[in-house]
Amino acid sequence: MKSANYKLSEFCLLFILLPVSLVIPYPVLIKTLAILAGFIYVIFVLFKIEKVKFKINKPLNWISFCKRTLIRLFFIATTTIIFVYFNNEADLFAVVVNNPSKWVLFLGIYSILSVYPQELIYRTFYFARYQTLFNNKKWLLLVNAAVFSLAHLFFKSPLVILLTFVGGVFFAITFIKTKSTLLVCIEHAIFGCWLYTVGMGGMLGFPS
User: Fold this and answer.
1) DSSP-derived secondary structure for 8-54
2) pLDDT tens digits, one per residue of 71-80
3) Domain segments of the chain as ranges
4) Separation in Å, CA 84 to CA 24, 134, 198
C-alpha cells in the first residue's frame, strides 16, 4: 500500500474517478455508498498506514494565520459583494436578514459536518499520502487545488469550479505553512460561511 504505483492508482480512483462519477446519472444510494466507502478507506489509510495522530501542533502562529486569513477574506468579501450586487441584488445578505436563526444553525452544521471531513481528505490525507509522488512542491499544491475543485464538479457550475480552485490554493498554502488541520478547517469554514452569508450559497447547495 506504500508503493508509488499503488498510491498513484489510489489517487486516480479517489480524487479523479470517484468525483467524476458523481456527475454521471446513477442511483443516489450507490453514489452515497461509494462516497462512504471512499471516506472509510481514507480514514483507515490515514491512521493505520500513514500513522497520522490527532493532535494540535504547538506552537501555532495564530497572529500570522489571522493576518493572512483576514487579507484573503477582504479580497473574497470585496469581490463577492460586487458580484452578487450586480448579478442578483436581492440575494445580497438575504439569508442573514430574512432568516437569521437558520443562518446561525447552518453555519455550525456546515463547519462541523462538511468542512472537517473535506479538510481531513483533501489536506491531511492528501499531503501525508502523496507528497512523495511530487518532486516539485508547486505541482503538489496545484494538483491539490485542482482535485479539490474537481470534487465540486457535480454542481455543474464553472463559477463553483473557479471558486473552489482558488480556495483550494489558499487552503493548501495554509496547510503547507502550518501543518495544521485545525487552522485550515477554520479558514475553510470562514470562507464557506462568508459565501453563504453574502448570498452565494444557492450555487453550493446551501439552504436559502
Assistant:
1) HHHHHIIIIIHHHHTTS---HHHHHHHHHHHHHHHHHIIIIIS----
2) 999 999 999 9
3) 4-204
4) 30, 38, 8
pLDDT at 183 over 90: yes
Residue 160 in 3-state DSSP?
Answer: helix
Q: Which residue has the cell 472509510?
A: 40
Q: Report yes or no: 87 and 169 within 8 Å, Cβ to Cβ.
A: no
Can you tell me whether residue 57 is helix, strand or coil? coil
For residues 2, 4, 7, 12, the Cα torsion angle rounded to the nearest 10 degrees is -170
Contact 18, 38 (CB under 8 A): yes
Q: Is 166 exposed, middle or buried (0-12, 13-18, 19+ CB in 10 A)?
A: middle
Give the position of cell 480524487: 15
Cα–Cα distance, 132 to 7 (Å, whole number): 10
